Amino acid sequence: MTELICPVCGEVLTLTDRTYKCKSNHCFDMAKEGYVNLLTGSHKPGSETGDNKDMAQCRREFLSEGYFDALVRGIIEFIKEKALPRPVIADICCGEGYYGDRIKNEIDCEMLGFDLSKEMVRLAAKRKNGITYFVGNLSRIPLKDKSVDIALHLFAPFHEKEFSRIIKDDGCILSVVAGENHLFELKELLYDTPYKNDEKPPETAKLTLSQRRKITARVHLKSNKDIMALFKMTPYYYHTRDEDKAKLRNIDSLDITTEFVLFIYTK
Question: Cβ distance 214 to 239 under 8 Å?
Fold first, then answer.
């Protein structure tokens, strides 16, 4: 069973050997790691888009330490509560596949994951966990209409038109944003006047916000490598002065708050 559609003409893609092909004979070969690149146009296969190789590896190493385990457990708990028989789950902007891998290991489901970054998807596909991975564009997701039971949307742009299109009539979007106290201790080290996050839910006229859940946990970052890896995963990294970044380089460990808000949207 495949939910993939051709990014050129919108026809269903069928996998034969290691090639996805539609009725119009548009073909997309599977990479050796097991994913397929479905980017077209300005984001054509082979172009440098999304996070690079170093950033992808950095994210994998940090998440593998279990620092965001509370969030993973919260997501899995929500999916289990739905009690759906082998649901179709889409991991939107899946990164290097950490969340999808954890979910797939605990829940019997058909899972698909995609990201704009080829390096992220390449790492995700190397997990060899039965998840269908592809490189794709958030604004034109190559998935069939009404094909997804639960779509996971973690820390990424919210594209209401596409999200509404791909989920089933009784499906939902699980969107995660940073809670007001998320990583506040990190910001205290970086800035003279640290601020709290606003916990604002993604705005949409096509979907209805039906639930809100908050997950909070304290974690101990055990090395400077982990501290810097986390910092690089945040938007603060790109908007912080070099002299402020230097404040983190001599810190060997740090206790921080991780806090996430889960917004569940339905049609």
Answer: no
Torsion, Cα of 139, 140, 145, 149 (10° steps): -50
Q: Which of 255, 247, 253, 245 is nearest to 223 (CA)?
A: 253
* Number of other CB atoms surrounding residue 258 within 10 Å: 20
* Burial class of residue 197, CB neighbours in 10 A (0-12, 13-18, 19+): middle
Range with the poorest average pLDDT among 37-51, 140-154, 176-190, 195-209:
37-51
Which residues, 6 or more positions from 98, have their beta carbon under 8 angstroms from its beta carbon? 59, 60, 63, 64, 72
User: If you count them, how many residues does the chain have?
Assistant: 267
**Tens of pLDDT, residues 89-119:** 999 999 999 999 999 999 999 999 999 999 9
